[in-house]
From TrEMBL:
One of its GO terms (cellular component) is plasma membrane. Residues 289-402, 681-744 form the ABC3 transporter permease C-terminal domain. Coiled coil: none annotated. The keyword Membrane applies. It comes from Fodinibius salipaludis. This is Cell division protein FtsX. It is a multi-pass membrane protein. It is found in: Cell membrane. GO terms for molecular function: transmembrane transporter activity.
Length: 745
């Protein structure tokens, strides 16, 4: 019986090649999208699970009134967790130090991007293998450094036999000597802990470690639970720890607390610092929904074509029932056909996904690999089979219900329910397709908006360069004077922070800023401060709204004056004109002398922030600074060469890195541009699949009305009128789908 069913199924496929091809190709495209997105989702959900004790590792963070939740914690927290919290077996600190300038000689320094300070027990918590060196000893000694093979090759040109070798680290005005203590494997792509070099935590300056302060925040703290069940008691134990180390007034809640998060959940949490499509749960839902849309459209094709061809297969049903076939057997046969098409599509879709994976990685900015894991492949096969059953379920029930006597006498009636179902499914199909089309248009309009929106400043031909060391910052006026002497340079400004690079945020309660604030809220206000110079406003063409900018003729402006933006004035309850002359205290006492127009310091995805500008540098700040240079449009190359030459005077062996301010802001939308291309791609695929189904239905309708078409042509009907006759019903359905899709989208 089974053999006969298979023969019949294959014979039926061969007899109706075009319909079989439409179904298989549509399903295959849908399956390929589903497989690729499954690889992406599987990768996202697998982050940090490769650690042997990943289910017992927790990430600890700080929550406060002024800053909300953040990863940074007080230095003493790790030790206190081990000593005072029964749920914690071990704890370790990790501090990010950013990029380093390293060399195997005292010149020709190489920029290494991702460096971290880690403690000796780092390798006891995390399953990163040391390829060379001893994990228990490598990080115990100050000035020890561990390299990845790629970092070692960048510095030494090789990655073997490096234990004990010297590395020179250029830090501001000094060169520090480090010693290679190990070679560590590259961090897997699905690790939230990424690194190029690991430094012994004792190498970090004592001032930066702030060993005894519970009010300073720097390291990221990780804890190892005594058991997975111990996580339930962490919240209460953190409350007790806060009471022990912070003074809290009676009847008041502490102004900060600690929280924990399982390491395996960090990647998709709000604490993740990922960019692109990784670490964002919304993208999992978005791309998963798109895959379901496309698969749904492919399923609609199968149901429509299967029910439309009822009159062709109904005699087969009648003969089989007359020969004794039960309805369940017929249902099994038709479901088998559907599943066979689905599995064939799965195989072809798998081939398509393998071929498309490099392009998919480029589009998504990922490093996915085709998984040969048998469980993953079986899971996809199961999904394909289920899709086949779901797609074939209604056609199987519909075809198997006819009575053999009426079928064989040509007296059966084609039910109107099937016709209505086909029409409904076509409407749903094109509703989904139009939703994707409109989504693509909306994304395009948003991207166009990001490129055309006035940011509140002019960054065209303005190049930004990080100053090489504190000497350049301390002698910045001299550097500016030298650069202004060149014809290829129009203006020069040196600031601590610039649009697109405001890294410092300070929070103040309104009453601590000024006694003249006019706001009812006592919630902390977060400000973005920066040290500027007299040329900053002119260079970036930022307009004054009230008051004035800093003047060289007024000595008080050097250390007692602030300029704020409109958002800062509003946050303090002042109109721009009212803010002028107000006494304020942003860590240092001074007076507001001017209010500038709002300007964006981050991407348009973030709200405009309150900004404070000042000429003086508070003693609590540690600034290296940024050089902003406005170049002549026709001498950009020459201007860049001059800047590089002048900065070499301060750090001869330091690489010259620069970026244009306008391009820096455009680069902030790299993810959105990728999203736009992805939505367009998936939309095209959905349209192709939907049109394939519509073509199949149209071709079948034309085939069933061959005699009518012949008679109309004999009677003088033109081809255009015949095409209009055959297509008007489908056009109505497509139009209805469009009408339904617009408000939904």
């Amino acid at each position: 019986m089974l053999k006969n069913y298979i023969k019949t199924t294959l014979r039926n496929f061969k007899r109706h090649k075009s319909y079989t091809a439409i179904n298989i190709f549509g399903f295959a495209l849908g399956m390929a999208c589903c497989i690729l997105i499954s690889l992406y989702v599987n990768e996202e959900l697998s982050f940090d699970t490769f650690h042997e004790m990943s289910d017992r590792i927790v990430v600890v963070g700080t929550e406060g009134d002024m800053w909300g939740k953040m990863r940074a914690t007080p230095y003493p927290l790790a030790d206190a967790m081990v000593e005072e919290m029964p749920a914690i077996e071990k704890a370790t600190r990790v501090s990010i130090t950013g990029d380093l300038l390293l060399s195997d000689t005292e010149q020709n320094f190489v920029k290494i991007d991702n460096a971290k300070y880690v403690e000796p027990d780092f390798f006891e918590l995390f399953s990163f293998d040391l390829l060379q060196g001893h994990p228990q000893e490598a990080l115990k000694t100050p000035n020890n450094i561990i390299l990845t093979p790629s970092a070692a090759k960048n510095i030494f040109g090789r990655s073997d036999d490096l234990i004990g070798q010297r590395i020179y680290w250029q830090r501001s005005d000094t060169v520090k000597v480090l010693q290679v203590a190990g070679i560590v494997e590259e961090a897997p792509a699905n690790s939230t802990m990424q690194y190029d070099v690991l430094l012994s935590y004792k190498t970090r300056p004592a001032a930066a470690r702030d060993i005894s302060s519970w009010r300073g925040f720097s390291p990221h703290t990780y804890g190892l639970l005594t058991s997975t069940e111990a996580a339930n008691s962490l919240s209460d134990q953190f409350d007790e720890l806060v009471k022990a180390h912070y003074e809290v007034s009676e009847g008041k809640e502490p102004d900060q607390s600690f929280f924990s998060l399982p390491l395996e959940e960090l990647h998709l949490s709000e604490l993740s610092n990922n960019s692109g499509f990784t670490g964002n749960r919304a993208y999992l839902y978005l791309f998963g929904s798109v895959a379901l849309f496309i698969l749904g459209i492919a399923c609609v094709n199968y149901v429509n074509l299967a029910t439309a061809r009822t009159s062709i297969r109904v005699k087969e049903v009648g003969v089989r029932k007359t020969l004794g076939a039960f309805r369940t057997q017929l249902i099994s046969q038709f479901l088998g056909e559907s599943v066979l098409i689905s599995i064939s599509s799965y195989v072809i879709g798998g081939i398509i996904s393998i071929l498309a994976l490099p392009y998919f990685n480029q589009l998504f900015g990922t490093e996915l690999h085709w998984q040969t894991d048998i469980s993953f492949l079986l899971w996809l096969l199961l999904v394909a089979s289920i899709i086949g059953v779901l797609a074939g379920f209604y056609p199987a029930l519909y075809l198997s219900r006819f009575a053999p006597a009426s079928v064989l006498r040509n007296k059966f009636k084609k039910g109107s329910s099937a016709s209505w179902l086909r029409k409904t499914l076509v409407v749903i199909q094109f509703t989904l397709a139009v939703i994707l089309i409109i989504s693509a248009l909306v994304v395009y309009q948003q991207l166009r908006y990001t490129q055309e929106k006035d940011l509140g400043f002019d960054g065209e031909q303005v190049v930004s360069v990080r100053l090489p060391n504190s000497t350049a910052w301390d002698t910045r006026e001299n550097l500016k004077d030298r650069l202004r002497g060149y014809s290829s340079i129009q203006e020069v400004s040196i600031v601590s922070s610039m649009p697109g690079g405001f890294n410092l945020r300070l929070g103040y309660k309104p009453e601590t800023i000024s006694s003249q604030v006019k706001t009812d809220s006592n919630e902390p206000i977060i400000f973005a401060p920066t040290v500027v110079d007299y040329e900053f406003l002119k260079m970036l063409d930022i307009d004054m709204v009230a008051g004035r900018y800093f003047s060289k003729d007024l000595s008080a402006d050097r250390n007692q004056a602030y300029v704020i933006n409109e958002k800062a004035a509003t946050a303090l309850g002042w109109m721009p004109d009212d803010a002028i002359g107000k006494n304020v205290n942003f860590r240092e006492e001074g007076k507001i002398i001017g209010v500038v127009e709002n300007f964006h310091i981050t991407s348009l995805k973030e709200e405009i922030e309150p900004v404070t500008l000042q000429l003086f540098e508070p003693t609590s700040w540690s600034t290296v600074g940024n050089l902003l240079v406005q170049l002549s449009p026709d001498k950009i190359t020459n201007g860049l060469e001059i800047i590089e030459s002048e900065l070499k005077e301060y750090a001869p062996s330091q690489p010259f890195d620069y970026e244009f301010l306008d391009k820096k802001f455009k680069a902030m939308y790299k993810t959105e541009f990728r999203l736009g291309r992805i939505v367009v791609l998936f939309t095209i695929i959905a349209i192709i699949i939907a049109c394939l189904g519509l073509y199949g239905l149209s071709a079948f309708a034309a085939e069933r009305r061959t005699q009518e078409i012949g008679i109309r042509k004999v009677l003088g009907a033109r081809i255009g009128s015949i095409v209009a006759l055959l297509s008007k019903d489908f056009l109505k359905l497509v139009l209805l789908g469009f009408i339904l899709a617009v408000p939904v989208a």
